[in-house]
Amino acid sequence: MRNLMQQPFRTAVLVLVWGWLLFLVLTPNLLVVGASLMTRDPATFISLPLTLDAYRQLLNPLYLDVFLNSLYMAAMTTLICLLVGYPFAWALSKVGKRHQVLLIFLLVVPFWTNSLVRTYALKLILATNGLLNNGLMALGWIDEPVQLLYTEFAVIIGLVYLLLPFMILPLYSVFEDLREDLLRASHDLGAGRLATFVHVIVPLTLPGVLAGVMLVLLPAMGLFFVPDILGGSRNLLVGNVIKNQFLDARNWPFGAAASIMLTLAMALLMFAHKLSKRRIGEDGV
Amino acid sequence: MKQTLLTLRNLTKQFDGKKVLDALDLDIFDGEFLTLLGPSGCGKTTLLRMMAGFEHPDEGSITLGGQDLTYTEPEYRPLNTVFQNYALFPHMSVFDNVAYGLKMEKRPKDEIRQRVEEALAMVQLEDFMRRKPHQLSGGQQQRVAIARAVVKRPKVLLLDEPLSALDYKLRRTMQVELKRLQRELGITFIFVTHDQEEALSMSDRVVVLKDGLIQQLGTPREVYERPANLFTARFVGETNFFPGTVDNTNDDDTITVDVFGLKRTFRKPDFSVSPGQPLHVLLRPEDIRVLAPSDEDGVAGKVVERNYKGSTLDSVIHLDDGTEVLASEFFDEDDPTFDYRLGEPVRVSWVDGWEWLLPAEPEDVPEEDAIDA
């Protein structure tokens, strides 16, 4: 107690941080958990008694389908981001410092525009009479416009477009930390390029891969406005389901249960990330 | 008897128009401990990397036992490297680090296990096989790096300033250990360092490098006692340079030289001398004798610094003409009062015959260039 009085600044900061976490992180999440365990009520949204109905409903084949489809689109998004982002981040770590700054700047610039606006812009590009179709026709590569908008493809493109920087930045940071002498050591000990990639580069960049996957996969399941704008009625994300349950169907317990599923998936990924870092001794264990 | 293993011919390399190696020739014998010694930027690390295959020369060739390796990729060379910062794979255990090279050779599992255990036993780390590199001390990581390189039984082991990250005491221990390993394994060691003491104590031969050129190649003793030029003399150990002028060449293979107005007789050097020619008289601090001011011999000066070093007393003496002299004297057990006060007048002399003569060079190296370590 004497300590608290002696260090008012420290105490103030601690109170602020803990207060923040308690009221703005823990409480809302507890409320969501609570809501997921309540009964649906058209008038007051939620009411007693406590029940596991919402979770039971998650197992409904209809929603399981949405979940799997959402997972599929998110996984495709993540895969494309990884395939594009991995070599990009690698190259980024290799170019000169001046180019590096410029490239990272270009990567971050889109964040200054609202993602909703950018998604609408993408719609203009992908539309039947959009920039892409017109361009391809002008080049004579296609004879008539291809249906791009309102397809699964459009949703995935939209998600990749919005989330790619979140894959590249953590990967860039692990490539920056990748020591040149480890690659030299690998070659010196008789490993070719492929063996070095498999045995040294991949394991050492794995924390970055997992961080990138974490930052892409879960948001990709939640970004409901992307299918709303670019997708057809069948290309739903878990985010759409949650949004619909809260805003349209007024089934709060079910919406809460669905969002808890996402949170749990996130926790699982974070755990895997921690393990991968511990493996290379970055956790100080 | 000594067989050449590695032959370097005319190796030349430029970075950004600056010559890092300049038409370098070197023959390295089978089973020797060779040290590349020089200040940073002298080309020693580039030379080592070329042998390892991480750099390719602009010109010249590297052959090992008759086989041309100049442009061979590192993974196909029968040489292995111990890196400056060990470069241990952080995600692998000690065992896997050491086994890596053998796995790449696709050796059978049993053989790998046995050879890794042998290599780790050799560096006294057999109990640390399951540890990760970050759980080891610097000295232990160093040993793993050595085990990882020698487990492949290379013809040549390249060591890139491997001890520079260790503290002084550990470095001494590792020096002895490396020397022992080299004797036991009979592998050729090529050791890069900027630490002249390390070079002298470990090597069979020392290559002194500066600006991509070999300044001297010889045994530690040759390099220390008979430096080929002023650079080597300055870089290897501490040296006093006294300006001298040839007074007379004598018939009995000696010359008379005027040093500080003293006429001293020296052995005739192996470069040509004529009366009136200026030259450098080199004397190591341990060759200097400090005498009482009443003594007839020597040159007058006064003590400006004294450093007690345990077994020796090192002092700096300013001669009356401003020349600075370093002296390092062993304690005289018969004289318990042996010591100097600062400012005490003394006379400085030396034993004739212990000197080394070098011709005055037209572009005498400025002092700063020589000091790097």
Describe the structure.
- The complex is a heterodimer of chains A (285) and B (373).
- Chain A has 285 residues and is an all-alpha fold.
- Chain A is built from 13 helices and 2 strands, in the order ααββααααααααααα.
- Chain A has a two-stranded antiparallel ribbon with strand order 1-2.
- In chain A, strand 1 and strand 2 (45-47) form a beta hairpin.
- The longest helix of chain A is centred in the first third of the chain and has 34 residues, at 61-94.
- The two termini of chain A are 32 Å apart.
- Chain B has 373 residues and is of the alpha+beta class.
- Chain B has 2 domains: 4-234, Rossmann fold; 240-359, Nucleic acid-binding proteins (OB fold (Dihydrolipoamide Acetyltransferase, E2P)), CATH 2.40.50.140.
- Chain B is built from 9 helices and 20 strands.
- The chains are: A mainly alpha (285), B alpha+beta (373).
- The interface between A and B is medium-sized, with 21 and 28 residues.
* CATH class assignment of the largest domain in chain B: Alpha Beta
Tally of helical runs of chain B = 9
The low-confidence parts of chain A are: none
Going by helix content, strand content and strand pairing, the class of chain A is mainly alpha
Low-confidence stretches of chain B: 365-373
CATH topology of chain A: MetI-like fold
Order of helices and strands of chain A: HHEEHHHHHHHHHHH
What class do helices, strands and sheet pairing of chain B give? alpha+beta
- CATH first level of chain A: Mainly Alpha
Function (chain B): Part of the ABC transporter complex PotABCD involved in spermidine/putrescine import. Responsible for energy coupling to the transport system.
Family (chain B): Belongs to the ABC transporter superfamily. Spermidine/putrescine importer (TC 3.A.1.11.1) family.
Keywords (chain B): ATP-binding, Cell membrane, Membrane, Nucleotide-binding, Translocase, Transport
Protein name (chain B): Spermidine/putrescine import ATP-binding protein PotA
